[in-house]
Amino acid sequence: MAKKQVIIDTDCGIDDAQAIMMALAAPHIQVMGITCVFGNAAVENVCQNVLRVLSVCEREGIPVFRGSGGPLVGATKPVSDHFGTDGLGDVIKDKDPQWELKIQREHAVNAMIRLVTENQKQVSLVALGPLTNLALAVRLDPCFPQKLKDLYIMGGNMEGKGNVTLCAEFNFALDPESAYIVLEEFLCPTYLASWEYACRNALTWEFFEELINQDAAAAVFMKMITSKCWAYSKDAMRSKRDVYFGPGFVSYDAYAMSACIDGSVVTERIECPVRVELQGSMSRGMMALDRTNELKKSHSVFVLTKCDVAKLGQLLMASLRQPKK
Hints:
Elements: E1 4-10, H1 14-25, E2 29-36, H2 43-56, E3 64-66, H3 108-118, E4 123-127, H4 132-140, H5 144-147, E5 150-154, H6 170-174, H7 176-185, E6 190-193, H8 195-200, H9 205-212, H10 217-226, H11 234-237, H12 241-245, H13 252-261, E7 266-272, E8 274-276, E9 287-289, E10 301-307, H14 309-319
Parallel strand pairs: 1-2, 1-4, 2-3, 4-5, 5-6, 6-10
Antiparallel strand pairs: 7-10, 8-9
Helix pairs in contact: 1-10, 1-13, 1-14, 3-4, 4-7
Pfam families: IU_nuc_hydro (PF01156)
Protein name: Inosine/uridine-preferring nucleoside hydrolase domain-containing protein
Family: Belongs to the IUNH family.
């Protein structure tokens, strides 16, 4: 059976690292390249984080490309400390001084266009960070979206609940214009794993303990990078995510990646047009679902609502049993 070809676009924080490992562990997935974007950390840190994940999993042959260092419009805001200042929990001391030599010379957006153009209707694009690289791709090549097989996005929200602003999810809030462009102009089949979808399909903290205490290099790495990170603390979540959704362990980007790896993970979804709000003092970056056809759009997306948590758990467990002995 031919392998499923995937490009991962990432702002590699801890949950991105988990999602990348999930793709690397899936035997039928071929990761063609990893494109980097600002978000959980500055894009230079993101590149180093991706290289680190590939090194842990002994998959250094996968090409890594540096992409956008800030949003499409306006100044780059200071990056959040959700996963520490470096995106991987601020626990890695031995940084690689040679990392830039290991990054491809080609810009991420050009690489994305080239790889998809060479393999038309074959490539699934999984977007785990702000959508800046994707918006630039469609500006450079207006036919780019129709060359994709499909698109999986971790981002946006369905109920106006926000995690960085009152009403907006992190990835969309960091670059609302790019999110708007992608959801207006990418007419390929598009699957959205929103913030609420991830939070409503949480795993238990007991599962998390079992996950990171497996006997493999990837699990040891994940245990280390989550060890001092408040986003992986039950106590810190009580005044944040738990207020909306109750307690649970959520690895956000894994929800988009798992849908790409195995469509049967998704058990319920809504098919409808969506639009990203660009104005609004409180709602900028919020995604609105148009279930009553007010917008008269020709294009719908699949907004994921329920998943098979047991299957998700199996994919997560497998992701940290690397490298294969």
